[in-house]
Specification:
Layout (H helix, E strand, L loop, with lengths): L13 H28 L17 E3 L6 H11 L2 E3 L3 E12 L2 E12 L3 E10 L2 E11 L2 E5 L4 E2 L2 H13 L7 H4 L4 E6 L2 E8 L2 E9 L6 E8 L9 E13 L2 E11 L7 E10 L13
Antiparallel strand pairs: 1-2, 3-4, 3-15, 4-5, 5-6, 6-7, 7-8, 9-10, 10-11, 11-12, 12-13, 13-14, 14-15
Length: 287
């Protein structure tokens, strides 16, 4: 009869429909998480060629009077003479943690040794650029350009100046060839590096491997940002060393804010170009 249910069927209880919808929702969310995870695990291609040409390198004798672990470090790395590095361009790929999420990145750090730098960093997902970070430290003033903000100010300058000297770990001879820097002895495996910051002096504590003599860690006190009231312990570690483009340099490095406990950046350097002409390049945009 019309309006009568088929006696061979029974209505499905509403709570079963709810469970099915919940299962579908959870399944969809899991799929999205899985896709996102794959995107975060996909390494990008290297940045395009800089088309820069390395320049000639001259050397000087390892200076006398260095702290024992520093003298050992330079002689282990270079022998009795150290190179005079005027510029360096460091390129590679790695990971950086942003807002609690670790993204693949590709990067290029360009230095006029001891004076200026430019950072170009591309954050990627599925190997494609998601956002770009550009940063300059020119004539003692820093400017950090993000897609959503620009950061600058005296505390940003202080952090950038420490980065200027810490990133010289890829071309460490600058720490003895630049007359503005100096050393203080501490013990058999560590020494204090003194570097200029305007009319002031900043310091980095360097620790060397007791067996190999190579640099393992740099520690300094740095402002996290312009709004920071106090400085935070900032750690740069060289996890291993290799020969890159004919010169010894850290291959794998990590950067850690001590209050975060784990590295926020893990970098795998793939190319170091020394003494290229950066007159126009250092202030430009792009890779």
């Amino acid at each position: 009869m019309r309006g009568m249910a088929d006696p061979g069927t029974r209505p499905v209880p509403r709570h079963r429909h709810g469970r099915r919808r919940a299962a579908c929702t959870l399944g969809g969310a899991a799929a999205l998480v899985g896709v996102g995870w794959v995107g975060l695990r996909t390494a990008p291609k290297a940045l395009p060629d800089t088309r820069l040409t390395a320049g000639p390198i001259t050397t000087i004798a390892v200076p006398d009077g260095l702290p024992a672990p520093v003298d050992r470090f330079y002689r282990t790395l270079y022998g009795d003479e150290v190179p005079i590095v005027e510029t360096a361009v460091i390129s590679g790929r790695g990971q950086m943690r942003i807002s609690g999420i670790t993204f693949p990145v590709r990067y290029r750090f360009s230095h006029v040794a001891g004076h200026h730098y430019r950072h170009h960093i591309e954050v990627t997902w599925f190997g494609r650029r998601l956002l770009t970070v550009d940063e300059w430290f020119l004539d003692g003033t820093a400017r950090l350009e993000l897609p959503f903000a620009m950061m600058e100010g005296p505390k940003i300058d202080q952090g950038a100046n420490l980065a200027l000297w810490a990133e010289a770990g890829w071309f460490p001879s600058i720490w003895v060839t630049d007359p503005r820097s100096g050393w203080e002895s501490i013990d058999a495996t560590s020494a204090r590096l003194l570097v200029p910051f305007g009319d002031e002096t900043e310091e980095l504590l360097l620790t060397f491997d007791a067996e190999t003599g190579l640099l393992r860690r740099m520690a300094s006190m740095r402002y996290k940002g312009q709004e920071a009231e106090h400085r935070t312990l900032w750690l740069n570690e060289a996890r291993d060393w290799d020969i890159l483009d004919g010169a010894p340099a850290p291959r794998t490095t990590t950067v850690t804010w001590a209050d975060e406990g784990t590295p926020w950046a893990r970098l795998r350097t793939e190319e170091v170009i020394l003494n290229a002409d950066l007159e126009r390049y250092i202030g430009a945009h792009g890779p």
